[in-house]
Amino acid sequence: MATPSEIGARAEAAISGALIAAGRRVYLPAFGGDGRTDLAMEDEAGLHRVQCKTSRLLHGAIVFWTCSNTNQLPRGYHGDVDLFAVYSPERDEVYLVPVTDVETRAGFLRIDQPANGQRARIRWARDYVLANGAQGVTTA
Fold first, then answer.
1. pTM
2. Which tens digit of pLDDT belongs to each residue from 43-61?
3. Which of 3, 48, 72, 125 is most exposed by smallest CB count within 10 Å?
């Protein structure tokens, strides 16, 4: 079983590769691996601070944590990063999600229609997926 550090390293590598393949410039911190920003990404809109996350596919949704839990104290990323770059190992896809688009504890991106028929306030994964050099959300 992989450690959390190994899982995070795999996500950062997959995300960096996908961003570069999509034509973004990626900058990695040389020192201070304990910072809130995992990498910086540059696109036509400018430079963006990025926090990398590994997701799980649960009940038709991409689910990922949007906070850190140091000493059992949850801390959100608002003001510290601009985007979550979310790697889904099950789908081998990367999603770019503005930190302002998700709640403070967890993010949910729907793949399938909800079983309860809900239609309002759904964030569809297809609107955030990084593919073919295009990405549906504005990162400015």
1. 0.88
2. 999 999 999 999 999 999 9
3. 72
Burial of 119 (C-beta count, 10 Å sphere; 0-12/13-18/19+): exposed
Q: What is the pLDDT of residue 85?
A: 98
Give which of 9, 118, 16, 14 is closest to 59, Cα–Cα.
Answer: 118
Cα separation, 123 vs 107, whole angstroms: 9
Q: Is 32 left (phi over 0), alpha (psi -120 to 50) or beta?
A: left
Domains present along the chain, CATH in parentheses: 4-134 (3.40.1350.10)
Q: Give the DSSP letter string of 1-56.
A: ---HHHHHHHHHHHHHHHHHHTT-EEE--SS-TTSS-SEEEEETTEEEEEEEEE-E
Exposure on the CB side of residue 37, measured as CA atoms within 13 A: 18
Reported confidence tier of residue 19, pLDDT bands at 50, 70, 90: very high
Closest CA to 112 of 83, 84, 90, 81: 90
